[in-house]
Amino acid sequence: MVWPAERSRLTFVVFLPTILEDMGFSSINAQGLTAPPFFVSFLITIFSVYVADKTQQRGLTIITTSTIGFIGYILLAACETVGVRYFGVFLAAAGIFPSIANILPWVLNNQGSDTRRGTGIAILNTIGQCGPLLGTNIFPKSDSPRYHKGMWVSAAFTLFTGFLALCLRTLLVWENKKLDEKYGRKVDPHPADGVDLSTQKTAVAEENYGPSFRYIL
Fold first, then answer.
1. What is the pLDDT of residues 125-181, one digit of tens each?
2. Please, what is the end-to-end C-alpha distance for the chain in angstroms?
3. Of 3, 45, 131, 162, which is most buried, counting CB atoms within 10 Å of its CB?
């Protein structure tokens, strides 16, 4: 999942000034016009991570943001009006960066020990940084000014990120059901008023992979 997401993100960062310049903006203006989409994506990234933390639904968050990014790339690939294409830049940025921001903690949240978390983030970043191997070759100057191939490939990879998030979430739902069957329903750490915690079995000093562990969806 991280590889297609990183491929879209790194390619977007590298080629956005060129894409804007080929829309008809001067070089200086193109550089300046990269700032608003990045700022909007920053705000949406903070908001999406907060919502995902509160709801414990990182998979659905990634699916949503990937869909937004996919729509943005479709506008960039299919439309000719500069205003619409620039709006597509906002949507693409608002989809790519929040997806990455939620993929990273999703991996860490679902590892059962510090060793697994450390190994997981190392593997994740190693695979993710291979994205530019493809990304830097799909926006050749010969495709200027529309860069159809690069836009369509980026749209496909962004949608693929959402599809993989859906597949992983479905798998984790199934795994959680198996854990429920084995250990019973997970005890609510903040029960409603009137619930006697003394009658509920809880794990003490348990790190993960025990009766109280469930995968974050």
1. 787 777 667 667 777 788 777 888 888 988 999 999 999 999 999 999 998 898 888
2. 15
3. 162
Other C-beta atoms closer than 10 Å to the C-beta of 147 total 22
Tell me the whole-structure pTM to 2 decimals: 0.84
pLDDT score, position 187: 60
CA distance 136 to 14: 8
Query: Tokens 């921001």 correspond to what residue?
Result: 101
Residue the block writes with tokens 């990937």? 66
pLDDT score at 206? 45
135 vs 90, more confident:
90
Q: How far apart are CA 145 and CA 59, in angstroms?
A: 35
Please list, in sequence order, all residues whose beta carbon lies within 8 angstroms of the beta carbon of residue 99, skipping any fewer than 6 positions away: 5, 62, 65, 66, 69, 158, 161, 162
pLDDT (tens digit, 9 = 90+) per residue, 97-131? 999 999 988 988 888 777 888 888 888 778 777 76
Contact yes or no for 61/132 (Cβ under 8 A) = no
Determine the Cα–Cα distance for residues 49 and 52; give it in Å rounded to an integer. 5
Q: Crossing angle for the helix pair 148-183 and 82-109, nearest 10 degrees?
A: 30
CA separation (Å) from 126 to 107, 154, 180, 189? 14, 20, 34, 36
* Single-letter residue type at 36: P
Residues 6, 131: contact at Cβ < 8 Å? yes
